[in-house]
Amino acid sequence: MPLVRIDALPAGTDRLDALGRAVHDALVETIDIPPNDLFQVLTSHDGSTSTLRYADFLDVPRDDDVVFVAITMRAGRPPEVKQAMYRRISELVEKYAGTDPRNVLVTVTENASPDWSFGHGLAQYLQSVGSLERPSMARGSAELLAEDLLDGGCGDRVVAGAGLREDL
Amino acid sequence: MPLVRIDALPAGTDRLDALGRAVHDALVETIDIPPNDLFQVLTSHDGSTSTLRYADFLDVPRDDDVVFVAITMRAGRPPEVKQAMYRRISELVEKYAGTDPRNVLVTVTENASPDWSFGHGLAQYLQSVGSLERPSMARGSAELLAEDLLDGGCGDRVVAGAGLREDL
Amino acid sequence: MPLVRIDALPAGTDRLDALGRAVHDALVETIDIPPNDLFQVLTSHDGSTSTLRYADFLDVPRDDDVVFVAITMRAGRPPEVKQAMYRRISELVEKYAGTDPRNVLVTVTENASPDWSFGHGLAQYLQSVGSLERPSMARGSAELLAEDLLDGGCGDRVVAGAGLREDL
């Protein structure tokens, strides 16, 4: 589910790949998504036709190794989970790509269950088991939405696993 | 109003154009926007300096025809409208660009009326008819915001049409 | 804190730079961020491998000078502040880059304090002064979140300044 955009200044394919793996592994470890829940847009900017601009906000000394990570995911993760996610991203970005943690900006934008379609034109997070085969048993989307608010939109592993066997 | 980002792997101009038309036609048909409400950023990634990464989340077998569609629009569309939008996007992407619906990821991020400026430095969704010519008749932005919450931020056609004749 | 994406059609480095400066100066003037709070992704699209699509929504006559500005920032700025921001962006984009205000689209997406990490793997907006050195004095993230809701997520200058001296 997270859609992740990673922007860096001129980076070879290897560095781009390392950045992508670092962020993804960190998400799998910290926000409870399955390893195959991978949707990334990785961009290396050449510095002329496209570029990044940055300064030393909060006195953090950034340089051209700067990496911007923008994560869109469902609402519900508490602040401490996000904090753990940031920490792990910075650790793995350093480990895999050699990028100093001071150069890693991360921002999160949240949405809700109806805001995702993972293919086949379906809103999978709104599908219940068997809803396609047996419409009479399908729960209303309002009910599922209510559940989503209650559980904070998390537990992707469960919902995804449940919906997938019969719905797809 | 929707700002739509479409990301694909190496795609000729024709495919990029087809993807853009497919998504736009689907939005016009399903979320009640006028045909000229078109704002898209279309990007074909070469796979080296920029690329997409994906896996088989929910057992959907994706391949390099994968397309990521990220839609930013005002809040208020109910889940069933979004479901219809996903379905129509996948149908038209297949029809116009020959892309299998399993390869289409769509995600929505919502904002509100004050979050849009369509040129001239104005927040058009906050302008009422004649507000520029006759400031004393302009309704407060709080009032318009309240309306927006009530009507769910939809009905763009009406609001836009009303604001446009005198405001621009 | 704002992460700003600016997309334009073929633009030399000079125009891209001017657009970036225009938007940033406008934000500093209107939404109370310090000048070094700068995080931008600037992209010039060549019109073939990547491009922008637009029409005349709200009867605004756009052309290939069109600029899309997408701002992600913390929630809390009232509509009149956003209106002032749009106005100033359009003025400075015209002044610095010669781009007519009719060609400037701006959209805002909001998030919250826990949604930002400015390096070092920290969620800086959740850190209180001295929280790293003296954990027992650190206020809980729930408390800081509550404050954030109360103050509308603004006052970046203060929070940032307070957190920075001891935390980084």
Automatic annotation (TrEMBL), chains A, B, C:
Superkingdom of origin: Bacteria
Coiled coil: none
InterPro entries (UniProt xref): Tauto_MSAD, Tautomerase/MIF_sf
Protein known as: Tautomerase family protein
Organism: Kribbella turkmenica
Source species taxonomy: Bacteria, Bacillati, Actinomycetota, Actinomycetes, Propionibacteriales
